[in-house]
Amino acid sequence: MSIAKQKQQRTNRKLSALLLTAVMTTGMLAGCAGKNDKESTGSPGSASPQQSPTSSASASSSEKATLAEFSYMRPVWGPATFAEGGAYEQQLNKAANVKMKVQIVPVGEYDAKLNTVFASGDLPDVFWASGPADYKFVDMQKQGAFLKINDYLEKYPAIKAMAPQALWDQLKDENGDIFFLPNAINPFNPMFNFYRKDLFEKLSIPEPTTIAELEAALEKIKTSDPKIIPLTGQDSFWGLGALGTSFGFAKEGWMPSKEDPNKLVPYWMLDGVVDFNMWLKNLRHKGLLDSEYLVNKDWSHSKTKFETGKAAVLGINWAYTPEILQNMKKSAPDAKLGILPPLNGPNGDAGGAQLFSLYDRGIYVSSKMKDPDGFFRVLNWSLTEGSDFSRYGVEGKTYKVVDGEKVPLPQDQVENDFKTTQIEPLQFLRPIQEKLDWTALKSQYEGAGIGDMFEEVKSKYYAYTANYYGNYRLPSTVSTTEQKDGARIYTDYLQPLIDGGATLNDKWNKPEWEAAVKKWLDAGGAKIIEEINANQPSKVKPEINIKELFPE
């Protein structure tokens, strides 16, 4: 299905409306957005007696002098090598007047760990979670497990300013209460397809512009050197997500059906999703796709292969660009790196980026926490007088000052106690305005000795985000059938195929995919689609302009 060919009604919006639309581009908040906008005036605690915060704009000097103590659990997306008591942690404790009992868990194991913790009934004082997109957390919220934070947002304006008001409004329950601190993000995080430009030039392969040209290039690479992996990536829908958009779909999205543009269907019902999986299967059969793709559970294996010269093309989140460039300069100093443009797909769909939500996970505070204001004091400090410390670290250890600008040091020049793996686990939340800062990025690239690639990275970023695939379903659109039984029927009939089975299992082809979808429809999926479309009259594609959201 070609999204580019669909002529949908679009309306111009001001920035505030753009922010709201971005929030509405995923189903992350489905079923939890409150319709009552009134602010709560009650105590921030809901399950245990707590002192209500004052309405002052910042903590008093006596409050600042009080040591904040709390337990803290969060996932990490890189190596889980955090070691307690390091030099950075000691400096943070002193600067913020805090003492934390920290528990860091690899993101792949985090949800299982959370379930174990919930079953024990002994919640950490502060912990990361996916938020009210998951009905489990909504239920826990209603049972009084989490702290109500309305009054803290008023007491600490810097915390409230982390996210746009539109996002806070979406997080309110039916009483206007908020229990979740969102980790605001840039909704545009395109997946780049990096390639060994020197290898392509050596084999006289022009830069591909279509999926067909890419496949031909991969075949030529394999023929020339069987030891090189032609294509590798994090996983099917994220690392190779840009290639997925060339087949006309966005993962996790609801989009118009091919037969009826006024009827929204979940992405797994689109022909492009099946075609993409079958294409990946064919690449695997031909030896053009990494044999460990979707098999090796360490997502970084693909990145390592590319950085060490073992792979020709890598699909990965664009945010890893500086790390990849720096590592390649060490392991393959003569290599030339390029970034493929968005590719046109086999059915005429233009490749691009997937539009995400304005937040990715966030923080809950336990309602049983003894001193919740202690955490909010620390969080407020990290956004105000401690903002530079939280963002840049320690001068001479994690950054240097060049012409008055703070420039992060390359990781290979940073002591172990001050590397990202020791700092990121201790970071809380940062304002959305910091999520795309081209000036800071340019300084970072130049400081790391990779400034020559900056303009290409920026150019390709806008090339990918110029054509985006978003979720047409609004977060306020709910289905009672989905709430009641959606997770079960998805797990029973679809999850094995969608999580990579259709790519890896030779017995699962297009007929098997279609049969699984039919079973899902018969088990309640058809009712979910009916309810979603009935509850959402508008089927307009979400509209947002990245340059308006984050001005250059």
TrEMBL record:
Q: SUPFAM superfamilies this protein is in?
A: Periplasmic binding protein-like II
Q: Does the keyword Cell membrane apply?
A: yes
The region called Disordered is annotated at 33-60
Domain of life of the source: Bacteria
Query: Signal sequence span per UniProt?
Result: 1-30
Alphabetically sorted, this entry's keywords are: Cell membrane, Lipoprotein, Membrane, Palmitate, Signal
Query: Sorted alphabetically, which Gene3D superfamilies does this protein's record hold?
Result: Periplasmic binding protein-like II
Q: What residue spans carry the Low complexity bias annotation?
A: 41-60
Q: Which Pfam families match?
A: SBP_bac_8
State the PROSITE patterns in the record: PROKAR_LIPOPROTEIN
Q: Which residues cross the membrane?
A: none
Q: Return the protein name.
A: Extracellular solute-binding protein
Q: Which organism is it from?
A: Cohnella soli
